[in-house]
Design a protein that fits this description.
With 135 residues, the protein is an alpha+beta fold. It contains 2 helices and 7 strands.
Length: 135
């Protein structure tokens, strides 16, 4: 599917829905494929986001969550040696992910070049389905 097909599809969805415009715009704008990532379903109430951030130190990565949008930034130091050949990317990145309702970030770790962010679903008691007795 080409970029134009994607844009046309979301424009059609936007014209048929009310209030979902910001969600569609978030999805359309997040076409950055660097760094690559995986989303792993651990259970119905838990999943993990994995970002391949080889070469980044913990101090070079920041994560912010605000109003259901998780933004992860990696900033590389621009002081680099004079390379004879450079085959490994040394670029900064920013990637955002929309977090579903009731999910929250519970843990983040960096190991072997993979940044793992774990999410869990916590539905407040008042929002859980209730069984209604029939009289």
């Amino acid at each position: 599917m080409s970029r134009n097909d994607f844009d046309r599809f979301f424009n059609q969805l936007d014209s048929l829905t009310v209030g979902f415009g910001p969600l569609f715009r978030d999805f359309q704008l997040n076409t950055n494929h660097y760094p690559p990532h995986n989303i792993v379903a651990i259970s119905d109430n838990e999943f993990s986001l994995e970002l391949a951030v080889a070469g980044f130190k913990k101090a070079e990565i920041t994560m912010h969550e605000h109003q259901g949008l998780l933004t992860i930034k990696g900033s590389k130091n621009t002081d680099t040696p004079d390379y004879q050949y450079r085959g490994i990317a040394n670029r900064s990145f920013e990637k955002s992910f929309r977090i579903a309702e009731y999910f929250k970030v519970v843990d983040a770790s960096l190991e072997d070049g993979i940044l793992s962010v774990r999410f869990e679903k916590e539905v407040p008691e008042q929002d859980k389905p209730k069984l209604i007795a029939i009289k």
